[in-house]
Amino acid sequence: MNRFFAFAAAVICLSACTSAVTLEYTMEEPVDYVSTLVGTMSKHSLSTGNTYPAVGMPWGTDFWTPQTGRNGDGWTYCYSADKIVGLKRTHQPSPWINDYGAMSIMPVTTGPVHDQNERASWFSHKAEKATPYSYEVYLADHDVYAELAPTQHACSFRFTYPESEMSYLVVDGYDERSYVEVVGKNRIVGYVCNNHGGVPENFRDWFVIESDTEFVTSECDGHTYAMVGFPTKKGQKVNVKVASSFISLDQADVNMKELAGKDLDSVKAEGRKAWNDVLSRFITT
Description:
18% of the residues lie in helices and 32% in strands. The protein is of the alpha+beta class. A hairpin with a 4-residue loop joins β7 and β8.
């Protein structure tokens, strides 16, 4: 008899817990049902979807993604990888077609290193949050927490750095067809031309990068990369804004206005609302 009552009590408790979980689950918004990591356990020899965790606005011009593959590798992000080499702006429709107009940025604290292999950082999926409108990850080797949230033509970044006499931010232009220049104390401009065919001869994707933290040092080869440095205190948040245009540098500056007066949290909120508005069209009662 005691066993019966114990079993009954367990069933009642389980039912109550299940009801509570179900209630909480049904209260989520449409975007919370989306996992951008589905299909990312792919490689050249075996596809489980050939996707990457794209972050952007519905019908946005640019998407951003963590990059675990080498520059030019169509398999930009693989779930089984354990190192991130950059946070990449992408237009890639599939690994077989590959990317065009790609570039990346990466916070670094292990010294003035810009090479994609040397700057790579270990990461764990336990310290990663991927949604359609934002991405967050802890870059363990650099002790930096990186966050990003895009608009239609721009993207807001927030990097939380450790205490360091000199921390860095690397801008990777991918190949020698690119142009990268550090302008003043908080601005980097340029364009990238990388593609895999199907573009006009004068194809360029222009970009503008602005930081709220002034650069103390800068290094640039004029083509493939720029690296800027600045001292940071423990927990210091460095806010970076990136805008782009397929038209011109001036248009990239115009597109930067999408981030005017907004911090990363407000950009995230706008992105979340935009995706919920679109995804709610699929919900019927």
